[in-house]
Input
Amino acid sequence: MQSPNRVLGIEGGGTKTDWVLAMPAPAPESASPALALVPVQSGRLGPANLRLTPDPALSALFAALPTDPEAVGVCLAGCATDADRARLFSLAQRRWPAARIRVGSDRDSALAAAFGEQDGIVVMSGTGAAVHGRCGTRIEKAGGWGQLLGDRGSSYVIAMQGLRRVLSQYDLSQKVTPFARTLLETLHLRELQDLVQWAMQADKMSVARLAPCIVQAALAGEPEMLEVLQSEAGALAEFTRAVAGRLGTENPAVRLFGGTFCHHPSYVALFNYRLSVLLPKATPELCTESGALGAAWLAFRDAGGLPPETAAEQTSVPGIGPENLSEAATEQTHPGSVGMDRLSPEALVDLFLAEEPRVAQALTAARESLLAALLLVTRALENGGRLFYAGAGTSGRLGLLDAAEIPPTFGSDQVRAILAGGTSAMVHAAEGAEDGSADEALSREGLAAGDVVFAITASGRTPFALSALRTARSLGAGTVLLSCNPRRAKTVPEWDVEIDLDTGPELLAGSTRLKAGSATKAALNLISTCTMVRLGRVRGNRMSHLRVTNAKLRDRAVRTLLETLALSPEEARNRLEAAGWDLARCLAGQ
Output
């Protein structure tokens, strides 16, 4: 993939949105990710918190930015879930349809600006606040629960705590302090009751803008306001220690981000002092790199602007890549369906029935790779590992469907699914999410070396699915790729198992929910069912670990017990009732 020459980075929060247009730097001499790019244009716009800003306002904000970048990184506060990322990706793609898009949260851009690919902890304090740490593919977080439940250490909480102290002082002394007068003058109010009414109606950003008043009062000797700053800086230091502990490090690199730190050196000093007590070996520094530059760096990296050692990991031989998807077998025109729109109902049915044997042929031809996948998955689950399906669109939905059937059918929770766009994409199309990364979803699941990631991608090139495999390989987990495109680009080195189901062109060109979908579902059924058989969760040809949750399943459990143990229906039901309808327990007790 050719490295982009014009990269746009956007980082938005509750107070402002920074953006930068950058170009690749010639032979950077530093490991700093920001120095991989040279800013050529930058600016600042209004707030863009994804949870607080409606789509029309975000579209208007994007409309004010450069029109012709080759890659765009958009990282906004409030972008926390797969559904959030799908929404943001759709908005960005609408604005820059020809660009490679990378979306994420302000955490992603902060980590990128501070550390690039390296490990460390970022402490963010602006309108909101949170602490995020990374070690390899593992991400840990503390704080950042929003202004109602958390955001300790943020400008908003500092301001609110200051306002509460002012009112408490009045309740105790019935006197309006000089600082309270200053606050009223700042807000053009006359009485404390006016301040109460203002606070009840003010939005988060308006409250946060009072934080500098609290800081100034603390510096002027107001003990109550100094206590506020010490408390909030201390909370962030406590969170930092907690994140470092979960990451297993005593000497983390710590970078401070956000306007609260950048505009108030005294707040930085309070944080650093408290952290030096809690985590003496930590190395905190104020990060002056723009988070927008971090967002640009992420887009630059994902679009092919990789350092040599990283690019080598994604080398491919000539074949089907993201830039020439049209050559994929699944995208070709089927010669037998060219005039399909003019066929009679009878002819349409015959056309589809005649095509179905291709599914069985594709599965038979892939027998050896299906067997290899079965053995790999069985070994992992026998040793306590888990199987993770990962995919987007139809492929991802098929993985989620198979995973959802395992607990009720076999009583096992070892099979999971990661779907681009989140579980809501099961019923609401979020196809734009396929260009995102599976890293965060797998991190939340605690992917480990004993697990297996099974990527499902009909074309063999879906970024979401391939990112899941790369994450698995980096952790030493097993890797399986299933595609319906034998002409796809092959990775170097190959994944542990590669299954290519040659289902050929679809009758409806590119609609992989047809033959490709049928073959994929059959392959997943085969591997998961045979794995459960090998794990002892089948007795004869019956579900020995069935979870009994309704009348139909109670009847099935009774029949299984009476046929397996030669009991009467009454005896079988009595045993099951006595065991709390635990069929496996009844069978084990004979």
Summary: The chain has three domains: 1-314, 316-534, 543-589.
